[in-house]
Description:
Blueprint: E1 2-6, H1 11-14, H2 17-33, E2 36-37, E3 42-45, E4 52-60, E5 65-73, E6 85-92, E7 99-104, H3 105-124, E8 131-135, H4 139-151, E9 156-160, H5 164-178, E10 182-184, H6 188-192, E11 197-200, E12 219-222, H7 235-240, E13 241-245, H8 248-254, H9 256-263, E14 272-275, H10 276-280, E15 293-297, H11 302-318, E16 324-325
Parallel strand pairs: 1-7, 8-9, 8-11, 9-10, 11-12, 12-15, 13-14, 13-15
Antiparallel strand pairs: 1-16, 2-4, 3-4, 4-5, 5-6, 6-7
Helix pairs in contact: 2-3, 2-11, 3-4, 3-11
Amino acid sequence: MSVYIIPQNRVPELLPMNECVDVMTNVLRTLSRGDHLLPLRSLIRTPDGSGLLGVMPAILGEPACMGIKVITYFPGNAAAGFDSHQGAVLLFEPEHGSLVAIIDASSITGIRTAAVSGAATRALARDDAGDLAIIGTGVQAITHLEAMSVVRKLRRVRVWDRHARNARAFVERESARHRIDIEVMASAREAVVGADMICTVTASKDPVVNGEWLASGAHINAVGACFPEARELDTNAVVRSRLFVDRRESALNEAGDFLIPRAEGAIGDNHIVGELGDVFLGKVPGRRSAGEITLFKSLGIAVEDLAAAHHVWKKARAAGEPGVEFGGHRIG
């Protein structure tokens, strides 16, 4: 069986952000139609608590495929010059269960996470939104700036990071890449006040955005916190917002931005308006007025990785790139 092995540097060429936004929109429709098998992810922490190993399997009906993402998460890696997320997506064809591709997971994760936020923003932000605040300046800040520029015309971009040096480096690099002026702000509050699109992409366990800062009509993509005990938004921010998620079951088990306000008694399960796929299918209304605040809580789910990997594999195969022999032969 010919297996495609696709390294980190090839993935962005095969998975450009504008295409990935559409791929994520389609797979979230598939998710909300129920055409999938998707257990909750399984996580194992390292003995010293410095990182974890995550296993995320799934089977999709459209596109027809199955697979698993195996990934490590070491939040302290940036200081050593390594990606915080490293691993691989293994893609299998569903007829015989043959392995067809092994694809770098850090690049898949970086692009597809931002693309889902792009799909959410396209559906939920005001049509005239263009004042963007990014809280955090790591890999996800880079891809989220690209995703936001794909779905909206940016008028102003402000960033804040706890480490001013990181913010300045981000601005110098990304301003040239996108040919847009990016402002470094002295505080998260200064970045958020007046913004109509906000992306929180930090590793913080405690709120970095307060609800009182949010402008009427703002849309928020809360991305960084992905554990029950961690959140980037305070309770007031969640209470003030109409909340959408990528997957309801995952949010009810893993999303600290939702679970902590619920534990405080500030909201109930019905505060989740619906899944993004419900919006894309027309089952649930998205933005209902120019003044309401919308919030997309992103956790990242295996069907997103699987759909992105399938797209990458399909394009590599169409381009005539060679695979390698890797088992899967007929018996007899």
